[in-house]
Predict the structure.
Amino acid sequence: MGIVKILAFAGSTRTDSYNKKLVKIAAEGARAAGAEVTLIDLRDFPMPLYDGDLEAESGLPGPARRLKQLMIDHHGLLIATPEYNSSITGVLKNAIDWVSREEGDDEPPLICFRGKTAALVSASPGGFGASRSLAHVRAILDHLGAYMMPEQVSIARAHEAFDAAGVLKDAGKQKSVMAIGSKLAAFTQKMTS
């Protein structure tokens, strides 16, 4: 197989999101391991709340269709997930709900998740580092048919964890997050060859 392609994004649209900073670090690790990484911002894919009537009337919104195609075109997913009220963010769940929808009888079910690899990282100002959202996102993606990498990293007290350049102040944590990207690249290479 050729170059592994990984789609990376955070489950947050906030400009100064800790998880946007975190996914960039993990993406660096994947690139260093030879993967081609596409880093996107979910803010660039604005979608209405999932509504079956809207889907029946108009199909997938354009941004959902673009995101779905990006997911189809990549071998693996690298996601940084914040934690809202002890769970997955609304923006991430809504994106998953839209892109999981089939567009025609000839489309295989869950085409943008089944057979894809996935790795998760998280950051939160709290003491748990958004670890509860990791469990929820992992369960969702596993159910949708993604091959979940067992390793994951949580960064607690995220408001104190990054320097002005978006690098983790703790060199060990920086290395651990980069290693998630690197391991995802290797895992994806194995799973797709």
The chain is about 45% helix and 15% strand.
